[in-house]
Amino acid sequence: MLGLVTAICFTACCSDDSDSDSGSEFPPEPGYVEVTGVALDKYEINMSRNSTDVITVTISPENASCKDVTWTSSDPSIVKVEDGKITSNPDNDPLLGGGKVTITVTSVDQGIKAECIVNVDNLSGVPYPAYPERQQW
After folding, report:
1. Which of 91, 115, 121, 127 is the most buried (most CB within 10 A)?
2. CB neighbours (10 Å) of residue 137?
3. Contact indicator for 47, 88 with CB cutoff of 8 Å
4. Bridge partners, residue 119, by sequence
C-alpha cells in the first residue's frame, strides 16, 4: 500500500529565534491567537539621575497566545530597563550625565513595537545654579 505523506511544521509560541521573522511561511497552531497590538501606560517620562520608574505594557488582544516581550534601551549608560523597570544611572557626571533615551518594547510574537521617551535631568533635578562655587564666571 502506497500513500502520500505530508509534513506540517508549526513554530513554537514564544520562540525568540533571531533568524526567523514574524512572517513565517508556516501556519500557526490551531487556536493560536496572534498579537495585534502593544501599548504602554506611559509614552514619555521625566526623571532625575539615580531614580526609577515602571512602564506597564498591554498586549492585544487580551487572549493572545504569546504575551512575551523584550525591552531595550537606546542608551543603557543613561537608562537601563529590565521587565519594564527603568533605572537612570547614578554614576553619570552630574553636569553631563542626563539625556534623552528611547525605551522600546517588542512583542516576541509578530515583532510589534511601542516606545517611551525618557528624559533624564543632568543635574539631579536641582535648578541652576547647582554649584554656587562655579558662579564666578
Report:
1. 121
2. 3
3. yes
4. 46, 100
**pLDDT, tens digit, 9 for 90 and up, residues 21-41:** 445 556 677 899 999 999 999
pTM of the model: 0.70
Grid cell for residue 76: 543603557
The type of residue at 20 is S
Considering only CA atoms, give the Rg of the chain. 22
Q: Alpha-carbon distance 70 to 56, whole Å? A: 13
Residue 124 in grid coordinates = 539631579
Torsion (CA) 127, 118, 57, 107 in degrees, nearest 10: -170
Per-residue three-class SS string for the chain? CCCCCCCCCCCCCCCCCCCCCCCCCCCCCCCCCCCCEEEECCCEEEECCCCEEECCEEEECCCCCCCCEEEEECCCCCEEEECCEEEECCCCCCCCCCEEEEEEEEECCCCCEEEEEEEECCCCCCCCCCCHHHCCC
